[in-house]
Amino acid sequence: MSIKLNQTNLDLLSSSVKTPKYDRRKVGQGIVHIGVGGFHRAHQTVYTEDLFDQGQDLQWGFCGLGLLRHDARIRDVMLEQDCLYTLLERSIEGDKPRIVGSIVNFLFAPDNREAVIEKMASFETKIVSMTITEGGYYLSSSGEFDANHPDIRRDLEHPHEPACSFGFLLEALDRRRKRGQAPFTVMSCDNIQGNGAVARKMLLAFAELRDPVLANWMSQNCVFPNSMVDRIAPATTDEHRALVRERFNIEDGWPVMTEVFKQWVIEDHFLLGRPSWERTGAQMTTDVLPYEKMKLRLLNASHQALCYIAMLFGYEFAHESMEDPDIRKLVELMMDREVTPVLPEVPGVNLVEYKKTLIERFANPAIRDQLSRLGTYGSTGLPKFVFPSIEDQLRLDGPIELLSFTVACWFRYLSGKDDRGNEITMKDPMAPRLREMALAGGKDPAPLLGVREVFSEELAQSPRFVTHVREALARFYEQGARETLVQTISRTSR
Fold first, then answer.
1. 0.70 cut: is pTM over it?
2. What is the DSSP letter of 5?
3. In contact, 87 and 42? CB cutoff 8 Å
4. Which helix (H) or strand (E) holds 308?
5. How far is CA 446 from CA 99, 384, 432, in A?
6. Mean pLDDT of the chain
7. Is the dihedral of CA 360, 361, 363, 366 positive or negative?
């Protein structure tokens, strides 16, 4: 019979499972985190857990927050398990399990909104960190704050009873202001270039609409460090739960699967102190931008390049795509020829070795990273990961064929069926509209290029870019995905 994961049962677990050796009763709650998903529990909490294992900085434990109704499931699991969970690092060398205990509390706003606000407003809270995805920042298609979003309108009408993450942040900060307290540091850990700067811009715009006095106080006092985060953490499945139960005899309602690799580059700008994350491998810097560009344009853009073509071939997992020599060649050529030449120098990083590591990570069969996960946000991912390299190369009159091929491949994927006629599940938030336009356009990319939430007018009217996309899209429909890919890499390999 498997052992239910909780604090009492830790000593019953197999010696092969690493468990917390520090006294969790002494762990504080200096950090409040919004968005306790798989990535947060594979990344920020692990750097902190490693610190605790060194006997360092126990005051910097996490209190997780669930703000939305659908967070009820993670609430139930976390509370039932004393906020413990199994982290399984997976590689071809084998699986390494550990129990992570750096989250010591979890609050669920729909049950007690006031408790959540007061937790953020308390003296103990020094940092509020976030993994809320790009949609949580209320960015409009122009990159400005979407003041007309229903969440924002609702919280402006009920500022003291917030529902969205930004509403909670403002109410807690306003209480601290009125009490004469310093603000907490707002730390975005989302996959957005300049995530701290974006968080600052959006939150201040929201505050200005709510109360210009609050906005002015925040502008003068709040800090928003930028960061770059990287670790692959596929969504947890019932198969993963069964694996943890059968292999390690642990009954865990929400284990986390991840790779061995992890990276965290943080702008060292914190108002009320921070954990010594540099002791556990994080890189503290004054300029995150070069690292962000490297990661977004190499790793994330490559994910976009491989996932859509692989789904058209009928593959399910990322490692399958790397077993396909044509897709592997596509990714390698795109990184080398079209992305790397427009990247800035990255201090302390050998880009040749970094790209080699990316291929190895993508090819890791133990992770079983779902292609559907990688392709979930094409409408927001392509503009962040792929378009910047295209725009840079257009200014330099450099090569863009493989990057353009990736865009055409996405257009073909949006039609909803792979090359064998099987339905492709699309989770993009704009999926219904995009699929309708893809089917209406067929070989003609014009309808999709006209979607201004995705394509700027300048890019959509670039003759060279449009020609590459149109030619590749036509080949997809006339010759099929495999032949289109083979012809493209053959031309660009010369």
1. yes
2. P
3. yes
4. helix 301-313
5. 51, 21, 17
6. 96
7. positive
